[in-house]
Amino acid sequence: MKILTIIGARPQFIKAATVSRVIKKIENCTEILVHTGQHYDENMSDIFFDELGIPRPDYNLGVGGGSHGAQTGEMLAKIEKVLFKEKPDYLLVYGDTNSTLAGALAASKMHIPVVHVEAGLRSFNMKMPEEQNRILTDHISTLLFTPTDTGYSNLLKEGINDSSIYNIGDVMYDAAMYYGKKAQNNTNILEKLNVKYKDFILATIHRAENTDNIERLTMIFDELSNVAKTKKVILPLHPRTKKSLENINFNFSESKISFIDPVGYIEMVMLEMSSKLILTDSGGVQKEAFFHKVPCITLRDETEWVELVEAGFNFLAKDLKSLETLIGEVLSKSFDYDKYSFYGKANAANKVIDFLKVNK
Ligand code: UD1
Ligand code: UDP
């Protein structure tokens, strides 16, 4: 069985790490890894291959930056060429990035079965590039693996046949458990940043809806700067957000936010596990907060991970001006994380490959 996997953005390296590890152990199964190049900085790409033991990509298409159309179009053309050459049995894609859509579209037009891991998620906000990518990818996929019950029922509601959908849980849960244990003994990030366990807030911001809207961007960073006057706030800065803040002449030296460069996954997991609260607009980080039993405030109006909001582990900061009040409220609550397993009970990566073997 030959699987051609498309990856390109930071969260996809982490998802692929768990599945690639399983593929490596299977006899007569080859994985061709294609990196679109969507993320290309050392600390947005290479670092994950090195520390998570992901095999070096067989192809790097070098398509980073640019507008959505140009980026997706160039990926599509380049992936098609690789597919003609490699002729895989399956094309495997993760999540909802432009790399995901380009891969799925290239394969679907060549009648190569598309396998979508992390299918079925919806924000019901069609302005999000990710929502467009998810819906289009799901509707041209042959096998759809959902991480949650909600994802499964979203697909049924859109008319996708239940014989193609499997709710297997979340491959990111596998990663969080596996690397969470390793992180304990393999990083000194807390010492490096001079912070104490459970004595700081961890924040990440990179969503287009926050970085490309000057009013929202300004409000978010003003609010975070206010919070940072009384509480330590560590913020690994995504390159997209850095550029947006530079464009509005954000005063980095005046703000008390502790900005750091993006970190590798092991350091990130350690920061997550050690923080007392997470503020984020990241999809992956919202779930990791739950996996590592840390309360989370999401700086968006909606989320695809609705079960965390419904169960009261994640709070949507719809009114950014009340962020400090919301932080106070959340920090005064206690949470019973052990009652819930919204994302399966691990081994999602094994399930993906087991299904592919059976369907081959
Ligand atoms: C992409 C995904 C988003 C995902 C995020 C993960 C799409 C539409 N968006 O958003 O769903 O949550 O990745 O982090 O696919 N840049 C660099 N160096 C890098 C990578 C990016 O400087 O290594 C800068 C470039 O200016 C680039 C911009 O960030 O143009 C945006 O990068 P892009 O990959 O297009 O989108 P993300 O915001 O990273
Ligand atoms: N992450 C990381 N280093 C960082 C910030 C995030 O390793 O500096 C990890 C994080 O733990 C999660 C993934 O990157 O596993 C999430 O990626 P991102 O927030 O970029 O994308 P999203 O999940 O929103 O698509």
TrEMBL record:
Presence of keyword GTP-binding: no
Enzyme class, first EC level, given as a word: isomerase
EC number: 5.1.3.14
Keywords attached to this entry: Isomerase
Pfam assignment, any one: Epimerase_2
Cited SUPFAM superfamilies: UDP-Glycosyltransferase/glycogen phosphorylase
GO molecular-function term, one example from the UniProt record: UDP-N-acetylglucosamine 2-epimerase activity
Residue stretches making up the UDP-N-acetylglucosamine 2-epimerase domain: 24-357
Keyword Isomerase: yes
Gene3D superfamilies membership: Glycogen Phosphorylase B (3.40.50.2000)
PANTHER family, per database record: UDP-N-ACETYLGLUCOSAMINE 2-EPIMERASE (PTHR43174:SF1)
Family: Belongs to the UDP-N-acetylglucosamine 2-epimerase family.
Entry protein name: UDP-N-acetylglucosamine 2-epimerase (Non-hydrolyzing)
